[in-house]
Amino acid sequence: MLLSVLLFCTLAMMFTACESQTSDIGSQKETITIVESEHRATSQAGDTMKTEEIHTATETTGTSDISVWYPYWDYATADAELKAIGDELDTICFFAAYYDVNNRPFIPEDTTETYNKLSKNGTLKDRNIYLTFVNDKLLDKGSSLKDTNLLYALIGNDDLANQHVADVIALTKSLGCTGVEIDYEAIKKDYALWQLFNSFVTKLSQAAANEGLALRVVFEPSAPFQNYSWPSNAEYVMMCYNLHGYGTEPGAKANPSWIKELAAKMNTLPGRKNLALATGGFDFAAGGNVAQIGQADAVGIMSQKNAEAQRDAASGAMWFSYTDESGLTHQVWYADQETLKLWIQAAREGGINRVSIWRLGGNT
Question: Which helix (H) or strand (E) holds 318?
Fold first, then answer.
């Protein structure tokens, strides 16, 4: 637990960092018990953080705003870490509301129970509290992640978008959050969907303002947001990770030049700007198999295989090679405290002093 405390406390010192019918939530509070799905299995792998690392990495600069995502599947350890962090944390995003087989948004039961507990014990007092919505959808068996067909069903015309805005606002208020965060991904080069998404965000910003709710919108690095006009009363979060990963050659999740490029790209956006960072990394196997990996696991493999890590000059990340039991060669890339220090400094040099961290939980 000490590692978690140190990690986030140092961040404080540095940054003065899922096609069919529409839903009918209305103003009714409704929670649906979540079932085991690919959403949990995919999201929980790899991207966990050690608080000691960010403590070391960020002790040299001032504080602005620190945001963290609080995942529903790891609420037990996330709760403990949150208590240990103390008053340094400014913003908590409860991750995540997503969609049932009928395209109705819901909040996992664990999230509702944890929110109520933290609210009652005063942990959420004087903090910005967001409910994150993701375009993941439960199916009869398993789930569909980053589902763009779902987005067409939710915002494919003005009537659908208006209803979706009402549902998002209602569900956010039902939990008691002070803000809503939209994290709809994998739109890629579907410019028709981008136009619909832009219209939806504009409608949502107006409705959120009318209800006294804050708004955050998360963008992937490839998002063509510069082609559209966005509301000024929102905060925009850029995902600064997975430069290398699935489908790429071995390499680091980010590097300083890329972070600065993304910071510069955000200059076209109004409102507040925020960069999202993650530690951990990837294990790249010869033949193309790639697996997410946390730093602790990476270090464990390195020790087991008697490998020696070296620092990549371009990215600041650590990497090493090993051979598995079947004779297959692997490269493991991950971030340590020096890597994180370099990336955060790059964000500041790019003019952005707000940071979001993926994620609470699994950091002990």
Answer: strand 318-323
- 124-140 burial, b if ≥16 CB within 10 A, otherwise e? beebbbbbbbbbbbbee
Name the amino acid, one letter, at 350.
Answer: G
Cα 152–155–161 angle (5° rounding)?
165
Is the entire prediction scored with pTM above 0.90?
no
Taking the C-alpha atoms of residue 57 and residue 6, their distance in angstroms, rounded to an integer, is: 10
Q: Residue 93 phi/psi, 5° resolution?
A: -110, 115
DSSP string for 204-216: HHHHHHHTT-EEE
Omega before 346 cis (within 30°)? no
Does domain 2-280+353-357 fall under CATH 3.20.20.80? My reply is yes
Instruction: HSE, CB side, 13 Å, CA atoms: give it for residue 236.
Output: 26
The dihedral formed by the CA atoms of 143, 146, 147 and 151, expressed in degrees to the nearest 10 = 130
Instruction: Find the range with the poorest average confidence among 9-13, 214-218, 237-241.
Output: 9-13
DSSP string, 51-79: HHHHHHHTTTS---EEEEEEEGGGHHHHH
Measured in whole angstroms, the distance separating CA 40 from the mean position of its chain's CA atoms is 13
10 CA to centre of own chain:
20
Report the C-alpha gap between 84 and 9 in whole angstroms. Answer: 10
Q: Range with the lowest mean pLDDT among 78-87, 88-97, 156-165, 173-182? A: 78-87
User: Is there a contact between 338 and 257 (Cβ–Cβ < 8 Å)?
Assistant: no
Structure tokens that stand for 216 in this block: 């955050």
Burial of 16 (0-12, 13-18, 19+ CB in 10 A): exposed
Annotate 129-140 with DSSP letters as a single string. EEEEEEEEEE-S
**Closest listed residue to residue 116, CA positions, set 31, 17, 39:** 31
Whole-number Å distance between alpha carbons of 10 and 358: 15
